[in-house]
Amino acid sequence: MWFLVKRQGDVALCAYNGRVLIDIPLLHEARQRLALVDNLVIACELIAPPESGRPRCHHVAAALFSNNGPDRLRSCAFDLVELGAEPQLNQTYGCRLQKIQQWLGNANLLSVVTTVQGSPADALAYYREWVGSQGFDGIVVREGQSFGYKIKPAFSIDAVVVAFGSRIMTGSPQLREMSVAIRRNDGRLHIPGSVGPGFAEIDRAAWHESFRD
After folding, report:
1. Distance between CA atoms of residues 200 and 187, nearest Å
2. For 134-164, b where at least 16 C-beta lie within 10 A, e where not — what string?
3. Model pTM?
């Protein structure tokens, strides 16, 4: 997730970790599309479409570190966070979506997330079609204001913890994240990534105590 930010006529993509992208093709298009709009913040997904298959996060990482990679970047907006000096999350999602569709719809390097309105039964049908049949990552189900559910398929694997990070909260150490690995048939360990979100505070303390022992 990145944020498309406009401040005093300048447009940039900003990540939550402080990374900033400027002067890339999709931002040139964004500057034209948002020429008549005051300062704003739009939440979006940054995408680097591969030659085949659906885009994944490692495609973005590869594009960011290659010479011509930024030219492949695309953004898909899904929410309006701020407009002018006013926060927008207190508005209905339909209102926020309508604004970003007006600004970024039918663009070349910019797009707006596919959104349909319907009942819970419709949500289940779309999940089965998009995620179950077409292999999409998941869907987001929203109610009228801001609250929503991110629904993804669940997968279970047997992995070993090879490293962990700590953080200090309310005076006691807690688990921040842990790196996990899968053992290959030849005995080597393959590290697919790290696990951080999804832990309750009490679980983070218990995991940290277990690792220390």
Report:
1. 33
2. eebeebebbeeeeeeeeeeeeeeeebeeeeb
3. 0.75
